[in-house]
Structure formats: structure tokens, C-alpha cells
Amino acid sequence: MELAARQPVSRITVAELADRAGVTRATFYNRYATPLDLLIQVLHADLERGHQRERERRAQGGYSPQQLLRLATAEVADHIDRFRDVYLNSLGDPADSGVYAALVHHFNDYTLAFMARGGTDLPDVNRHVIAEFMAHGFAGAIKAWLNDPSVTKDEMVDAAVACAPAWWASGTG
Q: Which helix (H) or strand (E) holds 82?
């Protein structure tokens, strides 16, 4: 993460990464194909910890659907803030589009899982199209936030929550 915060992951060599981690290149290649694969795994694991906190909140109750939506969105914003330099480096280098693509993929999977939990308010349309739309929209909001230093984290959260469809904001899923 330190290396990816200082430079785009596309410029990190396996030799540099292995040396920094105190392992051989062969050990690295036994687990990952590229430094990008490792970076995506670490970012995904951090996002999943936020989703676990969301599941715990749902299970304990006491939150309105709107509060849960805001808290979950803020969890993602906190993740982006923790790894701000990594995301900024990836957005600034076309060779690092894999980080953004992984973020979109993550949001797509999350949206499909949210819809799979069911509810009566879900629209009767292709859910894969909805998931892609939601994923790209949310990732786009994050990109807009990162690209404009005048946009605060709270403004991004407010905007993303305001764009959530009624069936999401009402707690369906």
C-alpha cells in the first residue's frame, strides 16, 4: 500500500514489491500474477470489512433504511479516504484503470447481493443492468470527489445518497 500510495501500481515492479515484503519473486508469483492483483485484494478486503459492519448494523436493528444507506455510503467514503493516494494515483495513470474497474466490479457485486435479499419494491427489470448502472454511478461519484478537491467527503456522501433509487433508500434488500 505504501508503494501504491507513492506511485501508480503499473510502475511498481515485482522485484521492488518482493524486496519490500521480504519475500522472493517466486513467492510473490505463487500467489499473484501482478502487483495490481495484490492491490485489488487488499482494497477489496478493506471494503468487505465495511460491509461486515453494515451487516452487523442490520442484524442489531434500530436503524432506519435511510440511516443504513448513509452509514454504508460513509463507510465506503472512509475506505476511499484511507487509500486516497492509491486511488488518486490510479485515476491519474491510464495504465492503472484496473483499480477503478475493480471498484466498479465490487459495487456491481454488492448491488446484485443487495437486490438478491429481495423485497416488494424492486423493479421488475433486468437486475444486471441495474447493478451496472448503480456501480458505475457510485464509482463515478467517487471519481468526481477525488478529482475535485473542493468537494468534501460529506458532499459526496450526500450526493450519492440523494441518487439512490427509492427501492434502495426504502430498505428493500
A: helix 65-82
CA 12 to chain centre: 22
Please state, in angstroms and rounded to a whole number, the distance separating the CA atoms of residues 38 and 156. 28
| Residues 119, 167 contacting (CB under 8 angstroms) | yes
Query: Residue ranges of the domains in the chain?
Result: 36-169
pLDDT tens for the chain, 173 residues long, are 999 999 999 999 999 999 999 999 999 999 999 999 999 999 999 999 998 998 899 899 899 888 999 999 999 999 999 999 999 999 888 888 999 999 999 999 999 998 998 766 888 899 999 999 999 999 999 999 999 999 999 999 999 999 999 888 776 55
Fold classification of 36-169 (topology level)? Tetracycline Repressor; domain 2 (1.10.357)
Is 18 in contact with 38 (CB distance < 8 Å)? no
Looking at residue 151, the DSSP 8-state letter turns out to be S
Question: Quick one: DSSP state of residue 93?
Answer: -
Three-state DSSP state, 11: helix
Which grid coordinates are listed for 135? 456501480
What whole-number distance in Å separates Cα of residue 25 and Cα of residue 164? 44
**0.85 surpassed by pTM:** yes
